[in-house]
Amino acid sequence: MEQKIESDTSFVSYPLSMIFPDKFLPGDVYLYLDGHFIKYKETGDFIPAIRFNQFMLKKHKFIFVQINDLEKFKQWSTSIQDKIDGVIIQAVGQSNAELVPLIKDIKKAAFDFLSSDAKDQIAKDILDKTRAFVAKVNERQTTQDYLLKMLQYDQGMADHGLNVANISTYLAINLGYTQQIILENIYLGALLHDFGKTLIKAKFLENPESRAYKQAILKHPEYGKNELIIRGNYPEDVLKIVSEHHEKHDGTGYPGQLKGTKIYQLTKIVSIANDFDNIVMSYKGEIPKRQANGLKELEQWAGTKYDPVVLPKAIKALKLVLAK
Fold this sequence. Notes:
Layout: E1 3-6, E2 11-15, E3 29-33, E4 36-41, H1 49-57, E5 62-66, H2 70-92, H3 100-115, H4 120-138, H5 143-146, H6 157-174, H7 180-191, H8 211-218, H9 220-231, H10 236-244, H11 265-282, H12 287-300, H13 310-321
Helix pairs in contact: 3-4, 3-6, 4-7, 6-7, 6-11, 7-10, 9-10, 10-11, 11-12
């Protein structure tokens, strides 16, 4: 139960970007509401990913901890990030270790982008970091499997965007897209595909089962595209991916009920990557089993949800490098 505590100076803000959802907390966590600190989670508890994402959607950048626990939280965050980095470096090889900080930079830029109302500088930052990363990856012989080895299935919204970006770029390469600008656009469009969710009014986010919430979610592709147009400098390819990523091959998707060839070709790739990552995250158990279930579900929707020409090629490419 949440416990109200009078406002005082014994609390300090802690960046939400340094919190890991579904990981046991090293100390109590507080929210600041109506002039009071409210105990939200106790030591040893965790912040569920769905709640973590709600904080992001509401553009909360901080939670609060007791000042005496600050160092403990810093060590906790560093320890978890070091373990994640170690797993990734082991997967991609020491020769690719220099790319790990680049993906962390993109995650930080994506987090700032999703949780901020600022426009110009943050938009430029995420564009620059995306281009630099894709250019670096595209130089390497290990591109074919490197991107998929960067996946992190137990994180929140920013990590989902990264996963979808990595999968989409990998699939694009395997489907014959090799031009730098195309890979940049699919990476950025996939990274920001759910950006529109952060533009839904906070009052609609309280109850995910409500009709108002579901109607707002149906509009998030349009919200995302329109806001990116306002922010400027986003290529048309990126705007199409953001606005069309929930369209379906048979015309039953949203928001435009586009069908078949009316759906942009790069969007078809991102849609497959998006659903695959969502499916894998929704299952429990070991990664290989979750991925196998993801592939099975994708195969069931050939010709209805997904392009019957693109999907088999995508599945074949995924089977080459997924965990065994």
